[in-house]
Amino acid sequence: MKIHEYQARQIFRDYGIPVPDSVLCYTVSEVEKAARDMNRMVVVKAQVLAGGRGKAGGVKLARTVEDAVTAGKQILGMDIKGYTVEKVLVADAVNIAKEFYVGLINDRNTKSVILMASAEGGVEIEEVAKETPEKIIKFSINPLTGLLDYQARNVALELFGDIKLANKAASIFTKLYKLYVETDATLAEINPLVLTPENEVLAIDGKMNFDDNALYRQPKILAMREPDEDELQEIAANEKGLAYIKLDGNIGCMVNGAGLAMATMDMIQLYGGSPANFLDIGGSSNPQKVIDAMNILLGDKNVKAVMINIFGGITRCDDVAKGLIKALEIIITDVPIVVRLSGTNAAEGLELLKQTGLPTVSSMSEAAKKAIELSKR
Amino acid sequence: MKIHEYQARQIFRDYGIPVPDSVLCYTVSEVEKAARDMNRMVVVKAQVLAGGRGKAGGVKLARTVEDAVTAGKQILGMDIKGYTVEKVLVADAVNIAKEFYVGLINDRNTKSVILMASAEGGVEIEEVAKETPEKIIKFSINPLTGLLDYQARNVALELFGDIKLANKAASIFTKLYKLYVETDATLAEINPLVLTPENEVLAIDGKMNFDDNALYRQPKILAMREPDEDELQEIAANEKGLAYIKLDGNIGCMVNGAGLAMATMDMIQLYGGSPANFLDIGGSSNPQKVIDAMNILLGDKNVKAVMINIFGGITRCDDVAKGLIKALEIIITDVPIVVRLSGTNAAEGLELLKQTGLPTVSSMSEAAKKAIELSKR
Amino acid sequence: MSILVNKDTKLVVQGITGRDGKFHTGRMKEYGTNIVAGVSPGKAGESVDGIPVFNNVAAAVKATGANTSIIFVPAPYAADAILEASEAGVALVIAISEGVPVQDMIRVTPILKQNGTLLIGPNCPGLITPGEALIGILPAMIFKPGNIGFISRSGTLTYEVVNLLTLNDFGQTTCVGIGGDPVAGLYFIDLLERFENDPATKAVVLIGEIGGDAEEQAAQFIAEKMTKPVVAFIAGQTAPPGKRMGHAGAIISSGSGTAEEKIAAFNKAGVPVAKEPAEIPELLRRKMAELSK
Amino acid sequence: MSILVNKDTKLVVQGITGRDGKFHTGRMKEYGTNIVAGVSPGKAGESVDGIPVFNNVAAAVKATGANTSIIFVPAPYAADAILEASEAGVALVIAISEGVPVQDMIRVTPILKQNGTLLIGPNCPGLITPGEALIGILPAMIFKPGNIGFISRSGTLTYEVVNLLTLNDFGQTTCVGIGGDPVAGLYFIDLLERFENDPATKAVVLIGEIGGDAEEQAAQFIAEKMTKPVVAFIAGQTAPPGKRMGHAGAIISSGSGTAEEKIAAFNKAGVPVAKEPAEIPELLRRKMAELSK
């Protein structure tokens, strides 16, 4: 789960990480009031769940209230990578002497949280990582001890040189680690972490992602969720026991198992088609799931054909077939459907499906070819 | 540092451990109002920093408001092990089906926190430990993982038998461990932890001690400190860099180093005297410390003689002698004083002290004998 | 021969009285797996399918000598169950539970290492040594004994491919579903090493997917350390970046973890990558023929 | 011969630029201790008494091969400094800092164990191998080389007794102040074992105090494992229960940890316990004479 910058700033503040003052605004008049109240140079920042806001023109410096109003007018309502900007953050534009990067992320290889820090702040860290990896300090944190003070200080000292500044930065690192672990984050970035000419160390921009599997124990984080339309669909599907992700193609897929679902999408493409979605109905033969899944698939106007791909393991194909038959009694559609059944009791299942008149096949590739053919009619 | 039962209950509540309702009362009329508001059987409990309140008559059950008033009158103002009862807790007297014990304590041998639990609750756990040690479950907690859920459940299941009750108790154990670590406690006891006939599990009485060395990072705990008169003296001495504990004897001791101070007390007793205190002035030859220490010693009316015992290590005895001379210029007393100097530059120190006219010796035993002799004049 | 589990494996089932635990205990027992104990707190003394139930793993291990555990408890309690097994001295733990928070797994990892406990999963279908022991939720009838080692990050796709192998007469030594989570126990290289050292295994099929760089590491390991042929398949070539494909681990982040990168790594290591599952048996046949020349 | 430290010890001083650190570095160097490095974050490149200062212990170890550390940082940072030394590979850490929270030491303990780091202290005066290395705040001039091992929980009382030993011509192999805290590093039995194995040590003097049961354990260890004579003294016979006698560890709690119990344990183990410090040399003389018969 992702959150907005203004939400990340709030979490930082709650954990004692110094962040410049800011006000969230939904309208231009709110922007005007905020800029007037702050009474100094501000930065107006689009709040959308997408990276690269600066390049897209979603972040503007404003020296006067008038500038801020102009920026607010430009940014509110603009489109950034498919997201419409509905709110902006009007933030104190602090003076910057130097910009740094610090981030925490779960690392699959060391099976730990790693701290990444760089004196090259303010730019995309992925670019730094690709072009000058030696400029990134990486450090694996032992989960049993957490980020120790001396470790945070060592990294901070390497970045800041001066011990007083390093102690300020180290304190931010340890707080960031604490909030990372306590909120079940999967990413926590401060970019840039800035040093001001007054020798303050501040978090200017923040990005946080969270572990969906841990949201059950993170009510405060869950309350921050602001899903977009696609995500609302995904969440709704999830609540029905389905994993669904919308894509741009025209062949809807309904598959049992995530790996098989991915392989199904791949195969459609391999044979020249284009998948409309990822959809995993899991291990159940419950007709309701099939009905829910079909409703989601057919709700996508781009879908020209549906490929159902079931491999019976513990679940028997004849049970799945029965579920499908029940579902297809309720769902009325003219979108063509091809069904592939394989594995446990596949023959019995295919036999049962004859009554539906649906084209049935027993291999994935056949199903994909057939679905593509049907989608082109 | 110790706290009262009502304070321990508050900490328990803050961490989600179920505790019966209660009201702290300083007067009989407050007791009456509390009992009336509760409108059920209550227990009136003396709040003093001493064990064995029940045996001393400091805990009384009251079925009616009148009973509560009577109990309040009896308990408020009573003396328990030298403590005057200034406040009582009026607490909901829940029905008890069975009483248990659970406690956490720092263990020197395993260098860890140990959980102790017993189905023999409501009595002094030390008695159970002595008479039927097999009835206490002891469990060393790995500080790197904390008390794990399955460990708490195992212990709880052994005590309660039933898994539903065990889960309730296990949740209390893990909360108790969390608060223990987070507050830098050195002891946290729930005794009794009770099972009600309605299958609730509640903490009826609580005891907590805290690590003095950690109070600097425990402002909430420090704010709970309610020292008695002796402790006020100890705290005041501490703030002057002295470790002081009042005892019942008549020979005041002033020593550098805790071990040597204890050995000095022991030696006084060995030769038939009785020490009036433990007093460690630490490693400094600062005259102010000597003045402060002498003021504390002579503030005790029981003190009939003073034994100053200094072993010069890093600190040179001649420096200490100079400090003593300065101090003795300011302090005017007719209590006899004997000074022992040994170690680095002892000869020079003793020479300097000649001007004071104080009896000086170079061994501990001589000093002790002399002090005892002086105390008997 | 086989890796990790065989006839002598003594299995304890954690969460044996739950719906899934009970169901799969029956299936595993039916397959012939040597299940010696179950654990369900508060139900000591009961039995499931004739298997004695204990209050905790330590008691089960003490009474039965169990050396392997399978975990069916719900995700919020899974990490605790893994630690319980590890601290009770169980040598191999298979965690089926799906949806375990990543931080839980991160915290568990160093303790397992200290105790020398091997973990498979969480969020995995388990493993099978055909004809000897089924420890997991895999459908027994698609497997048959043979000389192919099999490792996969996904469930149903495993069944799809194993079914193809069996139909094409490629039996298996051991098949392991390592699970789809970003932080998991044994991973590709851990198992490749074991297959390399298992005399009965003649070739290995590896089913990867998008996300992380375990496949790239596997490719490097194969190039540097393996003598036995390996054939691979990667799912998720059409998955868009930033979207989680069902598995918590199947996500392309920051432009890495793509199928292209993984396929390139395998190709560089001389490992043929199937375009679709149906190609795998033929690729395997060719590779093994090459070797026997 | 000696235990733990000698001429070859390479010492790093953590907190070398602080008041105490600087002062005692001078004294230790004067005694001849082989101090190779100091640590003070942000002061890399400076030097104290000609000793190079580094930003962190890892850098100091890398540059100088330091294998022993002494810690003078304030109590709130002491546990972190101990871990820093341990993780940097330092084999023996002596923590002088007084007032370290017990929970900090509890958290540190298992990590030191994992890393195989030995700890003395915190809240201790350090240790000395007379004529070879002084690592701590002990007053150098009271010690002299000889064949007595010495262990004590307290500071000034150590000096009192060692002074008596030296005056009575009992020189020392190594003298260790283990510190007065309830949770500390090496304890009586750890050191008794090392003295038993040290060929140069002919007898041991042990100074205990009230609180805990380390003396009782020492008594049992002596009875079961030691061939060399031991003489003991226990401070705090007149201390009342429940009162902390200066040291956080010197407290009689719940009726245990009393001087009586400790003396009884030693007597049972055949260890004479001096009534006052001045008796110790005579008891030692008698014990050693017994042995040489």
Could you please describe the fold and organization of this structure?
The complex is a heterotetramer, with two copies of chain A (377 residues) and two copies of chain C (293 residues). Chain A has 377 residues and is of the alpha+beta class. Chain A has helices spanning 5-14, 28-38, 65-75, 125-131, 149-160, 163-182, 219-222, 229-239, 258-270, 287-299, 317-330, 346-353, 364-375, and strands at residues 22-25, 42-46, 59-62, 79-80, 83-84, 88-92, 98-107, 112-118, 136-141, 185-195, 201-203, 206-210, 243-246, 251-255, 277-280, 305-312, 337-343, 360-361. Helix content of chain A is 39%, strand content 25%. Chain A folds into three domains: 21-92, Dna Ligase, domain 1; 98-222, D-amino Acid Aminotransferase, Chain A, domain 1, CATH 3.30.470.20; 229-375, 3-Layer(aba) Sandwich (Rossmann fold). Chain C has helices spanning 19-31, 57-64, 75-87, 102-115, 156-167, 188-197, 214-225, 259-268, 280-292; strands spanning 11-14, 35-39, 47-48, 51-54, 68-71, 92-95, 118-120, 126-129, 133-136, 145-152, 172-177, 203-209, 230-235. Chain C folds into two domains: 11-120, Rossmann fold, CATH 3.40.50.720; 139-292, Rossmann fold (3-Layer(aba) Sandwich). Chain C is of the alpha/beta class. In chain C, helix 3 links the parallel strand 5 (68-71) and strand 6. Chain C has a seven-stranded mixed β-sheet, with helices on both faces. In chain C, strands 9-8-11-10-12-13 form a six-stranded mixed β-sheet, sandwiched between helices. In chain C, 36% of the residues lie in helices and 21% in strands. Chain C is built from nine helices and 13 strands. Chains in contact: A-C, A-D, B-C, B-D. Chains B and C meet through helix 5 and helix 6 of B and helix 3 of C.
